[in-house]
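BUG: 3D viewer hangs when loading the predicted structure for this chain

Environment: internal workstation, default settings.
Expected: structure renders.
Actual: progress bar stalls at 90%.

Input used:
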Amino acid sequence: MGDRFWLAYAQEAVRGAVKAPEQRAIQLAGAIAWFWTVYSAAGLLAVALGGDRFGQFVSLLIALPSLVLIFAYWQTVRVGRPLTFNFDPRIPSEISSAFARAAEAKQSALRWAEILTSFAGLLVAVAVVSALLQSPASAPSLAARFDPDDKMRLLIVASVSKGAPVIFVARAASAPAGAASSASTLVKAASDGQVRTSLRVAAPGAQSVTATWSEDVTKTRLSMVVDVSAD
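Structure tokens produced before the viewer hung:
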């Protein structure tokens, strides 16, 4: 292998300084597109199945990779974009300098695309672990009893969706449907879904208490009923 071989090898290496990042960017763009599809499906499934028990931090972790992947894909597009440099085509040193700047710009964009893609993967892993560590959502519950010191006042405890407005209605058990013997109140659940309130009934005796609210993810309207004896 003589000088001509190494000169030809160097020539190909110099040409590849621009072409190689462009080819790598095409491969990375395909990987980002595949990753986006899998991540989107997994994120939607996670929110649908357990979104009501995710805090703001976990929700942010699930959503953040989408923004990072957009920037990563944009960087891959920058790698393949033609660059404009001013140089005198009659002066080899200026040609070399323009080529070096183009190669460095493409390499820099490719590095950022790879870093952002890796960062998005890390965020997804952290989000999955954080979601798995979340405590399971408690089942809705409703309990009521009369105040020992006031038989016209109900003490109500309920567990519903986090922060959901809840309508409590107490109706005398012996009252016919449509009779004006009910009382109601609107209370917003705490951040953990717990509600503690009281309600003065419209008529003495046993009561039927109903709690109605909207589930915060699917917006399904839910209700529970509990009977309270006057004993």
